[in-house]
Amino acid sequence: MDRYGYGINSVGLYLKIKHMNTIDAFVIVTIAGLLHASFQLSVSMLTLLSSHTIGAKKSHNRLLGLTNSFTFGALVMTVLLLSTISLIITLSSTSLILALWVAACGLLLGLGIAVWIFYYRKEQGTTIWLPRSLARYLSDRTKATKEPAEAFALGLVSILAELLFILAPLIVASLVLTQLSPTLQVFGIVTYIAISLLPLFVITGLVGSGHKISNIQRWREQNKRFLQFIAGTGSFALGFYIYVHQVLTPAMLGGGMY
Amino acid sequence: MTKSRTIGVVKRGGKRTTEQFDKDKLYASIQAACLSVRSPHGMASTVADSVCAVVLDWCKNRPEVTSDDVRRVSANHLEQIHPEAAYLYKHHRLVL
User: Fold this and answer.
1) Rounded to an integer, what distance in angstroms lies between the CA atom of residue A217 and that of residue A49?
2) pTM of the full structure
């Protein structure tokens, strides 16, 4: 994997490609995936969908069909977003990529503070930052969902609606993935998707194996402040790591070399 | 469908029009909460009947109640006979 060494000389900003450890790349992709996984809109919608499907006396097969379709929708949208951002990065000039690394650092640091301050609302339950009108609409749509196609669309929407928070980890993962070899890129995409959607896979599995929704929701409610703290701290730490690893170190190395 | 002509229910926040108390609506929501926590159908029906009876008794001498009151009285009784279902019943608006 390459990384950009840069500095300022008599003709202005320059870039120089250097090699980056593949392990570093996968550590960044894994942490970005975990950060994405800590955002809870999709999990809340899946919990609500399962609860209403069971409460409406639907069959177990119908329940599995809806939860699997929802998870598949979330997966498709995550892959689409990751691919789109990666394509834009691939088509960008090296100076823009450098700017994107700097922007990603800023986004992650800001995201960490935003998550600490207002990701969860200060009330009972697991209500999140979403405007109440949008939350009500999504909640009503989720409760009214009866067909797998609707659940699939809901899965797509659940990722889009939280784009404000998941954009930073997506950009970071894309920046890293575009610098890998094609084989490693596929492996990196699978790693990011598997980690970022892990909570949905777990809930689908728990609901499918007959666990009570109330236990899942109670666990989420009891641990929401811990999850919020971990997500904020993780974002802050990743932003700082990328700043040192991708912005500061190459600048110092580049500056020293020329 | 069982509807009381005498009890008006003022909706949440008082913004929507008042509607008549609908026992079937309450029954369905309690039953759904019980089923959501994997209670057997028979138990869900029994619990729903019990909660409806308590709420109807509470409403007996009141010409008008609020939907929040109905939810509170239902949740309080449900808490005593089925705490798991009561948790979901009370929190389903606070998931998202």
Assistant:
1) 12
2) 0.87
